[in-house]
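From the methods appendix. Each design record in this collection lists the tokenized structure first, followed by the designed amino acid sequence. Records were kept in a plain field format so they could be parsed without special tools. The example shown here is representative of the layout used throughout.

RECORD:
FOLD TOKENS (305 positions):
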């Protein structure tokens, strides 16, 4: 019986409990605490493998894209179980893979925002009240289902120092010039605990590759600015072929200040944003099985390089 649940929404608490349970069940799994959010929620990694090649996969940078979190949790569980049983996963020998690769995951970068969107917060909760007040001046955005930001109203995937001023100009012109349910870049790059912690953690892990899981669109973005990363396009094409997703150029209005942008700029190594599923966020759990099926081969290829 699996630990990871895909039959209920992955709340911040469920994600954290699942990480703890996986590390207790599988001796090969470990976890590290990155930081606590403004509302005291932990952001943890979940780590598997002992190999020299290190990769870092992140999910749920955006609150109403929480369906991406169980994709990573399930990937770690399936890989740990297959290695324990001496079996293959998606045609790959799990034990061998984990001798060659160390897989670092951060399954939920925005637990505060996820707590709001998944209904974990009651209207009496201080975080809920703060978010509702921010949302009131953006009546066109559904509340709380349209919420992407953290509870300070900063869009975490627009808070990285990689063309941040361009992102600021674009988003301010679109009316997101103050804390908002989405698209507010913050007062300065890395001014949020979540992004600061993930940037530090990325520097500490020093991975060969990063994936950042978002929803939705069934597309993969691989570029930042005009930086040439050797092999990145070819690997992107393999990821696209494995998942059935399209490898695309990032639209100009969302081409700056994201996590993968910052990684490509600072590390000059392959970094990808993977937009899973199709429809309106938050995607229904009925899509989970298809999303996992599409992304398992992609995850295995990204791990192996
Ligand atoms: Zn997103």
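DESIGN:
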């Amino acid at each position: 019986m699996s630990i990871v649940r895909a039959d209920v929404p992955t709340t911040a608490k469920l994600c954290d409990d699942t990480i703890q349970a996986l590390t207790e069940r599988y001796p090969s799994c470990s976890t590290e605490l990155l930081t606590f959010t403004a509302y005291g929620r932990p952001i943890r990694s979940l780590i598997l493998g002992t190999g020299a090649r290190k990769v870092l996969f992140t999910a749920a940078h955006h609150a109403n894209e929480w369906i991406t979190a169980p994709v990573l949790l399930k990937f770690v569980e399936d890989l740990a179980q297959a290695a324990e049983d001496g079996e293959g996963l998606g045609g790959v020998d799990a034990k061998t893979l984990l001798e060659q690769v160390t897989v670092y995951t951060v399954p939920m970068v925005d637990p505060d925002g996820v707590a709001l969107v998944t209904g974990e917060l009651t209207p009496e909760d201080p975080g809920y009240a703060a978010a509702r007040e921010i949302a009131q001046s953006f009546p066109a955005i559904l509340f709380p289902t349209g919420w992407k930001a953290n509870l300070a109203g900063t869009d975490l995937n627009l808070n990285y120092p990689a063309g941040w001023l361009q992102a600021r100009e674009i988003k301010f012109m679109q009316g997101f010039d103050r804390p908002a349910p989405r698209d507010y870049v913050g007062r300065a790059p890395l001014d949020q605990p979540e992004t600061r912690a993930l940037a530090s953690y990325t520097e500490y892990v020093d991975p060969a590759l990063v994936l950042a899981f978002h929803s939705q669109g069934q597309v993969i973005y691989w570029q930042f600015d005009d930086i040439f990363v050797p092999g990145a396009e070819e690997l992107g094409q393999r990821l696209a072929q494995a998942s059935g997703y399209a490898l695309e150029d990032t639209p100009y209005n969302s081409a700056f200040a994201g996590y993968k942008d910052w990684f490509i700029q600072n590390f000059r190594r392959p970094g990808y944003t993977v937009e899973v599923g199709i429809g309106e966020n938050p995607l229904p759990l009925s899509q989970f099985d298809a999303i996992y099926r599409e992304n398992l081969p992609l995850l295995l290829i990204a791990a192996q390089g």
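APPENDIX NOTE: The first helix runs from residue 12 to 25.
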